[in-house]
Amino acid sequence: MKTINGPGIFLAQFVGEQPPFDSLDNLCQWAASLGYKSVQIPTWESKLFDLKLAGESKTYCDEVAGIVNQHGLKISELSTHLQGQLIAVHPAYNDMFDAFAPSKLRGNAQARQQWAEDQLHLAIQASHHLGLNALATFSGSLMWHLVYPWPQRPSGLVNQAFEELAKRWKPILDECGSHGINLCYEIHPGEDLHDGITFERFLGHTKNHQAANILYDPSHFVLQQLDYLQFIDFYHEKIKMFHVKDAEYLPNGKSGVYGGYQDWIDRPGRFRSLGDGQVDFGSIFSKLTQYGYDGWAVMEWECCLKSPEQGAAEGAPFIEAHIIQVTDKKFDDFAGTQSDQELNKKILGI
Question: Which residues 6+ apart lie within 8 Å of 84 measured at CB?
Answer without folding.
Answer: 116, 120, 137, 138, 139, 140, 185
